[in-house]
Every structure is written in structure tokens, then in C-alpha cells.
């Protein structure tokens, strides 16, 4: 049985459908299907999306954004075979049937929450947007330009806003864009927990690059809503060094929960700045 610990030593009365053991186990199983090799000390591993139909959503991302559907995880009472995982290289999208108990549909979209949208990179943005138009994908905005950055927006069928960025270096899953009332403090918080250097994508947008993925931030005029129960339910990380990450999480003085998974894998779940749900898969000592 999984060991679940509250930072304050108390049981939490609310357990989400796509919570600790589901998110952690699905991520652990998905990682185990990837080619073996040494992980970086910290890696951005993907996002959890709340959708009414995980199978249909997974197929949509495979068809339109080049993902690969991974084998379904084990059936259980908490997750009766409904969660689906799509691989985009090292990044994984976990499609879950909702955080609420029972799930409430439709959920609110990603815009207005702490994770405003996802980003995908394309070498030829004009061709990509033409393809999305021809295949019936909702086009939110045509191609625009900010400094050297060319971009456009589409939306999936479940409320997640997706930015298309022309980038000849980074293609495929490109970034997440956080919304926050204090960009500097948010960036500092993520670097203190996950490392990395604060920079600017395209010399314009503040963020942190983790491998081939950017974590960008935008300043919101009002406090964003928590991601819990929104279209983008949370973001997932993988780290090596369970002891170190537990110490860093403890230093934040924020409530968190720890679940022991298979082998030496541990999952930590917490809410970061602007109530963005974080799931951290830690391995090793």
C-alpha cells in the first residue's frame, strides 16, 4: 500500500481522482517505457490535462501534434482504466477524467488559471497553421509577431489554449506559459526548487529552460485561479535525488504530500506559486 504523508502529519480530507497514486504511477509506468539512460538532475516531464474523454483527447494530440499513445496503465478502483498518456519525446501528457469528485463538465479552460497555455514549436509556422486550418482545429488567432518571435494560437476540444511558435531549434513540445502576479518571485521560486537559469526566450519572454522545454511566465493583473479542476490540471517533474528534493520542498514551508511508489520512486505533490499543482517524481537517494 502506498505511504501517504501530510506535511503536518494529518490525513487530508480531499483526495483527487487524478491525485498522487494515479499521477505518480502513470508517470512512473510511462517513464519505464522510455529508452533507458541517465536522467538529468531535474527534468520537466509534462502536464496533466482534465478531459471528458481521455481516449479521444489522447488521439487528438497524437493526430494533430505528433504524439505517441502509450499503453494504458493498470486498472484499479481509483482509476478504472480511463487515464491515458501521450509521449512527445521525453514530455508526457497525462489525460485524466477530471479532478472533481465526481468530475464536473465542462471544466473551465486553461486561460485564467496559473498555467495559461501550452506551446509547441514548428520549423515552418505558416505550413503548420495551414494544416490545422484544413483539419478543422479551432484557430484562436492567426500569425502574429513580437520581436523575433512568430506565433499563433489554437485550442483543443477540451479547453486548453495552445501556442504555435516558429522555432527551428526546438520543435514539438516547446513550453508552458505560467500566469502570475509576480513574475520575478515565481521564476526565483522555480529555480530554487528545480534549478536552472532565468533567461528570456527570443530575448523577449522571461522564463527558464529545462532541456528542450521552456517554462515561461506572464504577468497577470489579477491573481489567477488554481489549476485544480481546470483544463490543465497540473505540471509534472522528474528529479534524481529524493533526499535533496524533499529537503528543498520542506524549505518552502508549503503543504505537500509524499507517496512511495515502486522501487525507490517517490512522488511529491504540492501547490506552487499561484496554486499551480505540481507532481514531482523523485528517484534515487
- How many separate structural domains? 2
Would you report the number of β strands? 17
Distance between the termini: 21 Å
The profile of the biggest β sheet is: 9 strands, mixed
Write up this protein.
By secondary structure, the chain is α+β, with helices and mostly antiparallel strands. It has two domains: 15-33 and 40-107 and 230-267, Signal recognition particle alu RNA binding heterodimer, srp9/1, CATH 3.30.720; 115-219, 2,3-Dihydroxybiphenyl 1,2-Dioxygenase, domain 1 (Roll), CATH 3.10.180.10. 20% of the residues lie in helices and 38% in strands. The protein has helices at residues 20-32, 54-65, 125-134, 183-194, 242-251; strands at 4-6, 42-50, 68-69, 84-88, 91-96, 115-122, 138-146, 149-155, 161-166, 172-180, 198-201, 205-210, 213-219, 232-240, 256-260, 266-271, 277-283. Strands 1-15-16-17-14-2-5-4-3 form a nine-stranded mixed sheet, sandwiched between helices. Strands 7-8-9-6-10-13-12-11 form an eight-stranded mixed sheet, with helices on one face. β8 (149-155) and β9 (161-166) form a beta hairpin. The longest helix has 13 residues, at 20-32. It is globular.
Amino acid at each position: 500500500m502506498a505511504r501517504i504523508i501530510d506535511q503536518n502529519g494529518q490525513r487530508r480530507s480531499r483526495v483527487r481522482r487524478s491525485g498522487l497514486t494515479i499521477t505518480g504511477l502513470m508517470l512512473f509506468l510511462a517513464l519505464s517505457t522510455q529508452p533507458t539512460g541517465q536522467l538529468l538532475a531535474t527534468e520537466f516531464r509534462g502536464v496533466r490535462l482534465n478531459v471528458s474523454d481521455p481516449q479521444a483527447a489522447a488521439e487528438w494530440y497524437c493526430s494533430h501534434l505528433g504524439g505517441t499513445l502509450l499503453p494504458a496503465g493498470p486498472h484499479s478502483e481509483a482509476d478504472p482504466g480511463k487515464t491515458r498518456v501521450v509521449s512527445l519525446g521525453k514530455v508526457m501528457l497525462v489525460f485524466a477524467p477530471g479532478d472533481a469528485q465526481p468530475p464536473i463538465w465542462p471544466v473551465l479552460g486553461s486561460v485564467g488559471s496559473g498555467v495559461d497555455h501550452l506551446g509547441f514549436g514548428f520549423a515552418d509556422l505558416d505550413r503548420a497553421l495551414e494544416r490545422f486550418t484544413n483539419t478543422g482545429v479551432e484557430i484562436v488567432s492567426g500569425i502574429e509577431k513580437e520581436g523575433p518571435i512568430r506565433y499563433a494560437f489554437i485550442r483543443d476540444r477540451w479547453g486548453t489554449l495552445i501556442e504555435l511558435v516558429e522555432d527551428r531549434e526546438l520543435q514539438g513540445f516547446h513550453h508552458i506559459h505560467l500566469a502570475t502576479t509576480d513574475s520575478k518571485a515565481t521564476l526565483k521560486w522555480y529555480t530554487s526548487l528545480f534549478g536552472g537559469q532565468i533567461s528570456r526566450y527570443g530575448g523577449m519572454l522571461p522564463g527558464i529552460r529545462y532541456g528542450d522545454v521552456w517554462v515561461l511566465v506572464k504577468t497577470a493583473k489579477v491573481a489567477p485561479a488554481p489549476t485544480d479542476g481546470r483544463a490543465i490540471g497540473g505540471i509534472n517533474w522528474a528529479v534524481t535525488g529524493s533526499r535533496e528534493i524533499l529537503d528543498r520542498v520542506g524549505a518552502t514551508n508549503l503543504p505537500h504530500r509524499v507517496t512511495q511508489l515502486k522501487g525507490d520512486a517517490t512522488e511529491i505533490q504540492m501547490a506552487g506559486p499561484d496554486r499551480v499543482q505540481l507532481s514531482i517524481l523523485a528517484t534515487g537517494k
